[in-house]
Amino acid sequence: MKKLSRLIALLGLMLGILPAEAQDAANRNRFTNHTEVGALFGKVEYATNPYGNPVTYGRQTKTNLSMQTFNGLYVAPKLAAGLTLGLDWYNEAIINPVALGARYDLLARYNARIFATVDAGYGFTWFNKDLNQNNLIGGWMINPGIGWRLGRPGTGGFTIALTYKRQEATLKMPLDRAILKQEESRIYNRLGVRVGIVF
Amino acid sequence: MRLLLLPLFVSGTLLLGSCTDKCEKTQIVRQVKNITLSAEEIRAQLKIESPRSLEQPGKIYVKDNYLFINEIKKGIHIIDNSNPSSPRQVSFINIPGNGDLAVKDNILYADSYMDLVAIDITDPAQAVEVGREQNVFISGTLGADYWGYSESTASVSTQEAYFLEETFQTNCEGVIPWAGGWWPWPYFDVLNFASLNSGSSYSGSVANAVKSGSGTGGSMARFTIYDNYLYTVDQRKLQLFEISNLKNPSFVKNIDLQWGVETIFPYRDKLFIGTTTGMHIFDNSVPSAPKHLSTYTHMRACDPVVVHNDIAYVTLRTGTGCGGTENRLELVDISNLSNPRMLKAYDMQNPAGLSINYPTLFLCEGKFGFKGFDVTDRNNIDKNLLFHEKDMESYDVISMAQNLMMIGMDGLYQYDASNPKNLKRLSHIPVQKPAIVVEKKK
Predict the structure, then answer these.
(1) Which of A170, A181, B115, B430 suits a disulfide with B28, CB 3.0-4.6 Å?
(2) What PROSITE patterns does the entry give (chain B) (predicted)?
(3) Same structural domain for residues B182 and B216?
């Protein structure tokens, strides 16, 4: 969380120091769609023998498919707000984030423009098939980042985005008289790299 | 554009540094720890106490208007059942290490780990210990816990259950690490395994009870009384105690049996001893010298047995420590006691204790409820279901004329079974689970 707050502060700083570009007033209320596909990169460290003395640990790297679509309206010359629907295919979890999203043009002076992106919402597990009487429950999601848009202003274009995604989830495992609680709390902290199209 | 390169690089680095998944599995699991109790300490703790709620009920026993319910490892609840619609808890006898009981006249016999104790219950509210045969039992299981007595140190080594909360770092894939501790069978199954099932039969054991002045046990009984003898079984032997002097039970002898002995059930002048692999039949016409007649063998399973005339009804079930692989009811022809043979088997759901009040067979089906069958037609018992009480977990039953007592995970139920097709629930003594204490792993 500490790193996340630092990142947001950095983005805020960037917004403050960069010159604003006047946009055509006709841009206001214009519909925009931003559809992306990419990967979530991360790693995990875990106890391989929690009862060992000493406890031994292992590390795995993780790469998972991620896709999403943002549909919104320009509420200000450089700011679009709307709804983001996504699909993240983690190992042993399929999560569908439903989020409020925003796209803000940081620099719109050139054909290659920089934009800030943020989505925040809840990840659902509608399409995750639970096995062995397990029950995967979704959780909160936040996904800020920055991107590069290629294309002439006012037309469609291609994007490349670098984001941080935090997704929470909980796996509840079956109980009986000898097991009163058994659950795995998950926080996926991932570097999301996505390419997309926008119009 | 160049101005953006530095922030992009910085933010990318920050992102990479924070991209470690954090996953933890938290579990609260039943564990056991070994404890040692001195014989002196155990013996000093037997005392009468005011009534308390049922927490982990075990065996049930009926004598006249009183109902006795074993609280596993802790003692015996005495209940005035003169009005089955309104049973009244009279007292609780604190007996450390108690798992079985039997009553003759006004004397209650109970095990207390290694000892057999005789308790005068003339006034059940003021029961008092009147005799004790020391060091006659060596080991056993109570509920889920094993115990063993060492004569050299005069102490009992046993186990105490507790719940442990642990947290592990996991790889976010729901992997269940080895718990490290002891994963017991669920209580219900352990109880059946440990409690060494037998059978109760109104037409059999009650008749014996009347003859001998003793009470009637449930289908989990490991103690039974016939004539002037108390018979007990442990995992590998039958033990005889003479109780002609009621207050002073005296050990007579052991009869060695194969391992896996679970229950003992008297029927007329015969003893039926249930084991995990079958049933021994003893001629008990000379009560001081039971004589082995035959052994009926079935697949390995816990097997409560009840008998009516020439038919023994045996249930086999899965999910227990006895290693059963099938759930079924077997009918065994015992018209030739030297050569018992199976007549027919019926698939059941998860049958446990049973009782017969001919022609009605009452059958506990564990978490699948409680059933009654008309067994007049031996070849079509499954087609003659009289009732099926659901939404309860039953494991033992006693039928006494029209009164039916069934014990399960949530307490003792009593029914008016004068019309088995229309059971009327008379009362329910609920179980009140104690607050669970959870220890956190340090």
Answers:
(1) A181
(2) PROKAR_LIPOPROTEIN
(3) no
CA distances from A33 to A74, A159, B70, B385 (A): 11, 12, 71, 65
The total number of residues written for chain A in this structure: 199
Any domain includes B340:
yes
b/e code B392-425 from CB counts within 10 Å (16+ = b): bbbbbbbbbeebbbbbbbbbbbbbebeebeebee
pLDDT in tens, B368-421: 999 999 999 999 999 999 999 888 888 788 988 888 999 888 889 999 999 989
* Predicted TM-score (pTM) of this structure: 0.70
pLDDT at B189: 38
**How would residue B265 be classed by pLDDT, with cut points 50, 70 and 90?**
confident
**Residues 115..174 of B with a Cβ closer than 8 Å to A: which?**
163, 165-166, 168-174
Q: Flag whether pLDDT at A99 surpasses 90.
A: yes
Based on the fold, state whether residues B171 and B240 are members of the same structural domain. Answer: no
CB pair distance less than 8 Å for B172 and A90:
yes
Query: What is the interface pTM, i.e. ipTM, of the complex?
Result: 0.82
Chain B hits for A90, CB-CB cut-off 8 Å, are 172
Chain B residue with minimal CA distance to A192? Answer: B15
Q: Are residues B166 and B268 in the same domain?
A: no
Any A CB within 8 A of B184 CB: yes
CA B339 to chain CA mean position, Å: 29
Polymer length of chain B: 442
Q: Longest Cα pair distance anywhere in chain B, in angstroms?
A: 107
Same domain, B262 and B318: yes
Q: Which of A44, A181, A182 sits opposite B171 (nearest CB)?
A: A44
- Tell me which chain A residues have a C-beta less than 8 angstroms from the C-beta of B184: 178
Residues B242 and B175 placed together within one structural domain of the fold: no
Residue A181 forms contact with B (CB below 8 Å): yes
Q: Which domain holds residue B272?
A: 206-430
Number of domain units in chain B? 2
